[in-house]
C-alpha cells in the first residue's frame, strides 16, 4: 500500500491528536475527579479505592482486550474454520459472574491490594510468595512480550513498514506503556483504558461492518453455517504450509469447554492480579460488582470484533475477493486481522485506527506492568527486602522493577515471530502458570480444613504434573490441565485428611482449620450490589442464547439475541450501583464509612 506525503501527514496528525488527547484527558480526570488517598502506596497500587463502576468496567475490558486478542483470536478462528474459539470470549462471562458473586466479596472484605494477599491470610506467607512469583514470571516473560509482539506486528502490516525491525516498534510501545503505568499508577491506567475503550468499540465494530458491506451484508455469514458453529469436534482446519484446508480438530473442541477451559477462564478472571486489581480499587463492593458484571455483558458480544473478522476472512479467501485489483490472500494466520483492516478500512482512517490500536496494546501492557510492580513492591520488597520501607520508597522501587520488566519484554518480543499461533502459545503459557494457582484459590475460598502444608503439596503436585503432561501430545492440553487439576486437589485432600502422610512429613496429624470468620479489615463498604443475582441470571441467559443461535445457524434467533442483549444493556446502565438494604446484625461490625466528597475512607484501614 503506497502512502503519499499528504496521506502520511494525515495519518500522523490523527494518530497524535488521539494519543496526546487521551494522555491530557487522563491527567485532567485523575486530578479533578479522583482524589489522592491518605497513603501513597494505596493511591498508586489501588487507585485510592476510588474507582466507580464504569471505570472498573472500562479498565477490565481494555486490560483484557489487546492485540493478542484482536490479532491472536481472529487468527485462531481463521485457522479453525469455525467459531470454536468464541468459547474464550462468551464463556469468560460466566467466570466473571463467579468473580462478582464469590471471589470479590472475600477479597474486598480483607481490604487487599493483591489477590495473593488472600493466600497469605488463608494459608501462610510462603504460599503467598510462591503464587506472587508465578504471576511475576508470567507477566515478565509471557504476557508483556506477547502484547508487544502482536502490537508491533499489527502496526507493521497495516502500514507496510516491513523495513522497520520488530524490536524498534516494540521498544516504542513499551516506552509509552511504561510511562502510563509507572508514573501514573493504577488510576491513570484505568482512566486511559476507559477512554481508549470508547475508540476501540467504534473501530472494533467498524472493521467487520465495512467488510460485510463489501460482501453483501450480515446474511452472508449464514450462507455457510459450518463457519459459525462454536461447539464442534472437527472442522476444516487451515494448513499454512499448503494454504489448503482439511478435516481436523479445532483449537477448542466442544468437549474441552466442560473441563479445562472453564478452569482457565476462572483463573484469569477470579485470581489473576492483572484483572482483579481493577475491581479491588472500586470505592465499594457494589460498585466493583456492577463494574465486573457490566464488563461481562460486554464480553458476551466481544466475538463481533474478536472472532467475526476471522470468519469474514475465510469467506473472502474462499470467494476470491479482490481489493483494488489485488486478490485478498492470507499467508500466515496471525496476519489475518491486520490484512483485513488494510483491505476494508478507508485509507484516511488508518491514523485514527493506529492510535486506538496503540491504546488497546497499552491497556494490557501498562496494566501488566502496574500489576507486576504492585506484586513486587507489596509481596516481595516490603516483606523480604525492606519491611520498614515507607510508602514512597515502595512506590519508587516498584517503578524501577517495572522498568526492568519493560526491558525484558522488549528483548523477548521479536523472538516470538517464529511461533506458529501466538494465541495458542499464550493460552498454553497461561495454563502452566495458572494450574498450581487455581486449585489452592478454590480450596482456600470454599473450605477451612486444608492448611498451608496441604496448599504447598497441591501447588507442587499440580505444577510438576502439568509440566510432565506437556509430553502427552495425543490429549488436548486443556484436558491435561483438568486432569492435573484433579490430581492437585487429590494431593491436597491427602495432605489434609491422611494423618500418617502428615506425620511422615513431620506435620501435625490433624491440621488446624483456618478461622471461619476473619476480622474485617475492609477499606470500603462491602455490602453486595442490590441487582447482583438478577444480572448474573441475565448474562447466563445471553450466553446460552448466543451459543444456540450460532450452533444451529439461525439468523432469526441471532436477531433475538441482539434484541435481548440491547434491552439488558440499557437496563444494566440504568440500574443504580446501590448496595442491598440489609439490617445490621446484633453486635456486628458496621461497614467502613466513606466520605463521598473525597472518595477516601473515614473508618477502616487498608491492608497492604
TrEMBL record:
Transmembrane regions listed in the UniProt entry: 6-30, 51-71, 91-109, 130-152, 164-186, 198-222, 252-270, 291-317, 350-376, 397-417, 429-446, 478-505, 526-551, 557-575
Compositionally biased intervals (Polar residues): 595-608
InterPro entries assigned to the protein according to its UniProt record, in alphabetical order: Na/Glc_symporter_sf (IPR038377), Na/solute_symporter (IPR001734)
GO molecular function, one term: D-glucose:sodium symporter activity
GO CC, alphabetical: plasma membrane
Keywords recorded for this protein, A-Z: Membrane, Transmembrane, Transmembrane helix
Topology within the bilayer: Multi-pass membrane protein
PROSITE patterns hit by this protein: NA_SOLUT_SYMP_3
Ranges where the record places region Disordered: 580-608
Pfam families: SSF
Location within or outside the cell: Membrane
Domain of life (superkingdom): Eukaryota
Main location, first listed in the record: membrane
Assigned protein family: Belongs to the sodium:solute symporter (SSF) (TC 2.A.21) family.
Listed name of the protein: Solute:sodium symporter family transporter
